[in-house]
Amino acid sequence: MKEIKPDQHSEKSKREQVEEMFNSIAPKYDLLNRVLSLGIDKGWRKKAIKMLEPIKPKVILDVATGTGDLALAAMSLNPDKIIGADIAQGMLDIGKIKSKRAGYDNKIEFINADSAALPFANNSFDAIMVAFGVRNFQHLDQGLAEMYRVLKPGGRMIVLEFSKPSGFPYKQLYNFYFSSILPIVGNLFSKSSNAYSYLPESVKHFPEGDAFAAHLEKCNFKNISINPLTFGTCTLYTADK
């Protein structure tokens, strides 16, 4: 799998570049998400959370939590504790503000942590969530293996990730919007010169569908399901330990 970095010419690692990129766009991240996704991302998160309802998780880990949108949405499950982990402190700081504003700061904890080395004991969580984050892992299999390690036996992981629609005419409209409109608007309103150019490139090269399921199988996950959403613009994966 080709490694796609925000700046292909930089000698910094993908992890370092992703951390810097998200710290730089943190102040405008939520606004741009709503505008550029036309608000559809909220519905995707609701569908993802619904896949956790049958197991009634009480302790949840949200990897690559960003500003905490998925963690906040998961409060509908009435968990005892959610930990949101991310490498970008700027994103976490905004997540803390949002959580406190919503009255959940006693149940949602935000920590600076890398998916490749999660600071938790084996079998710690009933459920693990990732929304639009696995694409940014420097070491995909290592990140998945770490999530498998800290997930309890019988626990469930849900992953939301962008994918590429294949049907006409949505494929053509999507490609034009993703490669032409999104980078211009994103780069105009964010401080990062490459964040929204990196997005379509990272989606283009990410192993989606059965290819991503193969990575999950390699890391010992089972009962893997693949659910394309919105004509394949996004895919919801579920997997159990």
Give the structure's gist in a few sentences.
The protein is an alpha/beta fold. The chain is built from eight helices and seven strands; from the N terminus they run ααβαβαββαβαααββ.
Q: What can you see in these coordinates?
A:
It is a single chain. With 241 residues, this protein is an alpha/beta fold. It has one domain: Rossmann fold, CATH 3.40.50. It is built from 8 helices and 7 strands; from the N terminus they run H-H-E-H-E-H-E-E-H-E-H-H-H-E-E. A 7-stranded mixed sheet has the order 3-2-1-4-5-7-6, with helices on both faces. Strand 4, helix 5 and strand 5 form a beta-alpha-beta unit. The longest helix is centred in the N-terminal third of the chain and has 23 residues. The chain starts with 13 loop residues before the first helix and ends with a strand.
Mean pLDDT over the full residue set: 92
The sequence of SSEs as H and E is HHEHEHEEHEHHHEE
Content-based structural category: alpha/beta
Number of helices: 8
Strand order of the largest sheet: 3-2-1-4-5-7-6
Assigned CATH architecture: 3-Layer(aba) Sandwich
Question: Helicity level, as a percent range?
Answer: 40-55%
Q: What is the C-alpha radius of gyration, as a whole number of Å?
A: 17 Å
Describe the sheet with the most strands: 7 strands, mixed
* Unreliable residue stretches: none
Tell me how many strands there are.
7
> How many domain modules?
1
Task: Examine the coordinates and then state which fold CATH places here, giving the name of the CATH topology.
Answer: Rossmann fold
Q: Which class in CATH terms?
A: Alpha Beta
Name the CATH superfamily classification: Vaccinia Virus protein VP39
Approximate shape: globular
**What is the terminal separation in angstroms?**
25 Å
Task: Note the beta-strand portion.
Answer: 15-25%
